[in-house]
Amino acid sequence: MAGLAKVTLIGNLGRDPETRYTPSGAMNVSFSVAVSRRWNDQSGQQQERTTWFRVTGWGRIAETMDQLTQRGALAKGRQVAVIGTVELQEYQTQQGETRHSLEVRADEFQLLGSRQDYESSAERLSANTSQDSEDPGSTGDIDDVPF
Question: What is the CATH number of the domain that holds 10?
């Protein structure tokens, strides 16, 4: 009988996404997501624990993630929701210690927060990159458009 290990993450990107290609040309996009949980302990003190997940998208979802990254909408600190399969990876550090990493292969992906947040960051990015290419005599005032 086959099993299934699905996970839903809602958290913030810990670093900007990184786009890579396999030797065969397949695109993948990876980033880390921090999921924090807060609670009050028995003495009433607020506690917080953050768990880090490495998320990787392949195929069409990777293409979408890459486009959002290029537009500035998917970047460090942004809140996202990811649904995918989870695996526990074991590796050795240079010091010989055994460590574990929770890795998620994204099946579904969604930006969270208001669309205005993403659009305003994309506009700032666009404004910063287009300032050099603007006509020096242009004031950029919308009222000066002749139609």
Answer: 2.40.50.140
Q: Which two tokens stand for residue 14?
A: 């810990």
Contact 28, 58 (CB under 8 A): yes
Contact 9, 34 (CB under 8 A): no
Beta-carbon contacts of residue 11 (< 8 Å; ≥ 6 apart) = 33, 34, 35, 36, 53, 79, 80
Contact 98, 90 (CB under 8 A): yes
Closest-CA residue to 76 (of 32, 20, 27, 122): 32
Q: Is residue 147 part of a domain?
A: no
Q: Output 31 or 101, whichever has higher pLDDT.
A: 31
How many CB atoms are closer than 10 A to CB 74?
22
What domain range is 82 assigned to? 6-133
The answer to pTM > 0.85 is no
Structural domain count, the chain: 1
139 domain residue, yes or no: no
Structure tokens at 32: 């880390």
